């Protein structure tokens, strides 16, 4: 049987639980049609990443994988490497625990950060996310500006942001807080109130937790992300605990996964990078979050207009005429300054880290020797 006959469906019975669908089938077929090697490639999804080793789910079950030497050779930067949530095409050698990743299927969305360094590079911290839940607590930490910043950070990714206001049980009037939030952000962004600790409001999250949907969770420390994740994956966690109890030696029988299916068929993504998502994506998101101001700015007389007191500034004119809300303009300016400040801070942190460790930014590329030994394994 010719391994790369186009249109021959892949066997993906088990991958469907990880979000496989017709879209990915078509992408995978395209890779297969272009595959002019002797290798048989099958689809797989990245469920965890440990430096340069990946955990992947294949139709044959879970495996560890590394990228092929040629993949590494052809990658033009960190952004080309697989990340959690990515669909890849891999070679599965029978009886081998390791798979070799040969191709990345084009991403539908990517949350990424810029890795500062001598040459700033994009590093993807989560791919193919449908919804990104931005978790905020309804207690004294509640802060509309922070919500706006997270929103800005998520905006350029291609994933749909959803504001989740949690700890509703600590708030006298959660609905009015939700209304305040809605008034502050674009209409297209849903705002959902829950109490994860009390298990209240799951039905409000249901629209974002459908079969095959990939859902990431981000928010500042203490906002309630773990509690939310545990609540949403409760049934699953129980199953894991049952297995643990069955294990007479009391060993840890759970494996580290950063992408896992929950009851109802959604896939939750919980990676350290996503948790820390803050202003990383802000540069690209800023324009989009303030697209109304960006549109005005395109009409300013000077291309480098700072919209402060320049002649022929369309933004200032809109402020004067009342077309542009002053509060929104102030947010735009303030967020822009914060982004610049954060970027400076990251550059400084990164430089001092580099000085300490003598290495360059980010994940080290595997050496050619390492790559050979993996491929031989
Ligand atoms: N009352 C109440 N407390 C909550 C709720 N959700 C979380 N908490 C509490 O808030 C604290 C922080 O919650 P976590 O879920 O650990 O927050 P996190 O966002 O995962 O924090 P990091 O791990 O630091 O990123 C814990 O003490 C939780 O018990 C809630 O819905 N109601
Ligand atoms: Zn201007």
UniProtKB/TrEMBL annotation:
Domain EngC GTPase spans what residues?
A: 127-275
Enzyme class comes to: hydrolase
Please indicate which superkingdom the organism of origin belongs to. Answer: Bacteria
Cofactor: record remark = Binds 1 zinc ion per subunit.
What Enzyme Commission number(s) appear in the record? 3.6.1.-
Annotated Basic and acidic residues bias = 340-357
Looking at the record, the residues that make up the CP-type G domain are: 121-277
Enumerate the Pfam families for this protein: RsgA_GTPase (PF03193)
The question of whether Transcription is a record keyword is answered with no
One GO biological process term is:
ribosomal small subunit biogenesis
- GO MF annotation list: GTP binding; GTPase activity; metal ion binding; rRNA binding
Q: Which family does it belong to?
A: Belongs to the TRAFAC class YlqF/YawG GTPase family. RsgA subfamily.
Annotated HAMAP family:
GTPase_RsgA
Q: What does this protein do?
A: One of several proteins that assist in the late maturation steps of the functional core of the 30S ribosomal subunit. Helps release RbfA from mature subunits. May play a role in the assembly of ribosomal proteins into the subunit. Circularly permuted GTPase that catalyzes slow GTP hydrolysis, GTPase activity is stimulated by the 30S ribosomal subunit.
**Protein name (record):** Small ribosomal subunit biogenesis GTPase RsgA
């Amino acid at each position: 049987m010719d391994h790369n006959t186009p249109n021959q469906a892949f066997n993906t019975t088990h991958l469907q639980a990880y979000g496989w669908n017709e879209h990915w089938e078509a992408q995978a077929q395209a890779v297969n049609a272009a595959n002019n090697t002797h290798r048989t490639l099958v689809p797989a999804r990245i469920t965890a990443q440990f430096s340069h080793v990946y955990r992947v789910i294949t139709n044959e079950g879970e495996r560890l994988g590394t990228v092929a030497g040629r993949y590494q050779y052809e990658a033009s930067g960190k952004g080309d490497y697989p990340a959690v949530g990515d669909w890849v095409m891999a070679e599965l050698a029978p009886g081998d625990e390791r798979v070799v990743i040969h191709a990345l299927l084009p991403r539908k969305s990517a949350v990424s950060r810029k890795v500062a360094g001598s040459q700033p590079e994009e590093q993807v911290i989560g791919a193919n996310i449908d919804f990104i839940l931005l978790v905020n607590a309804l207690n004294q930490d509640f802060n509309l500006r922070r919500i706006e910043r997270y929103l800005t950070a998520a905006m350029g990714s291609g994933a749909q942001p959803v504001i989740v206001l949690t700890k509703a049980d600590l708030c006298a009037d959660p609905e009015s807080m939700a209304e305040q939030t809605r008034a502050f952000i674009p209409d297209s962004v849903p705002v959902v109130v829950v109490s994860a600790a009390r298990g209240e409001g799951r039905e409000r999250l249901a629209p974002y937790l459908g079969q095959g949907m990939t859902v990431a969770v981000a928010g500042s420390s203490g906002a309630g992300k773990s509690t939310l994740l545990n609540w949403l994956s409760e049934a699953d966690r129980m199953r894991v605990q049952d297995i643990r109890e069955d294990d007479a030696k009391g060993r840890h029988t759970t494996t580290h996964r950063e992408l896992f299916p929950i009851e109802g068929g959604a896939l939750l993504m919980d990676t350290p990078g996503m948790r820390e998502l803050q202003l990383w994506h802000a540069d690209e998101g800023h324009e989009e979050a303030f697209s109304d101001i960006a549109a005005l700015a395109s009409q300013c007389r000077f291309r480098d207009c700072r919209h402060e007191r320049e002649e022929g500034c369309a933004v200032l004119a809109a402020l004067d005429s009342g077309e542009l809300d002053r509060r929104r303009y102030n947010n735009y300016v303030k967020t822009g300054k914060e982004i610049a400040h954060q970027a400076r801070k990251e550059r400084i942190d990164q430089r001092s880290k580099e000085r300490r460790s003598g290495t360059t930014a980010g994940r080290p590329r595997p050496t050619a020797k390492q790559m050979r030994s993996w491929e031989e394994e």
